[in-house]
Amino acid sequence: MPTRMANPGKTKMTQRRIAELAGVSQATVSLVLNGKADAEVRIPASTRQRVLDVIAGTSYVADPAARRLAGVGNKILGVFTYEPAFPSASIDFYTPLLTGIEAEAEKLGCDLLVFTSAPVENSRRRLFHENNRLGLADGALLLGREMDPVELQRLVAMDFPFVAIGRRDVDGVPYVGVDYATGTALLARRAYDLGHRRFALLHLDSTGESGLDRQRGFHDELATHPDARVWTGPATSGNLAPIWRSIRDFAPTVVFVESPEHAAELARIARDDGVEIPRDLSVVVLGEVAVPDALATDFTRLSPPRVRLGAEAVILLSRMLDPDDEPAPAELRRLLDCGIADGATLVAPVTA
Amino acid sequence: MPTRMANPGKTKMTQRRIAELAGVSQATVSLVLNGKADAEVRIPASTRQRVLDVIAGTSYVADPAARRLAGVGNKILGVFTYEPAFPSASIDFYTPLLTGIEAEAEKLGCDLLVFTSAPVENSRRRLFHENNRLGLADGALLLGREMDPVELQRLVAMDFPFVAIGRRDVDGVPYVGVDYATGTALLARRAYDLGHRRFALLHLDSTGESGLDRQRGFHDELATHPDARVWTGPATSGNLAPIWRSIRDFAPTVVFVESPEHAAELARIARDDGVEIPRDLSVVVLGEVAVPDALATDFTRLSPPRVRLGAEAVILLSRMLDPDDEPAPAELRRLLDCGIADGATLVAPVTA
DNA sequence: CTGAAAGCGCTTACAG
DNA sequence: CTGAAAGCGCTTACAG
Question: Are residues B323 and B282 part of one domain?
Answer without folding.
Answer: no
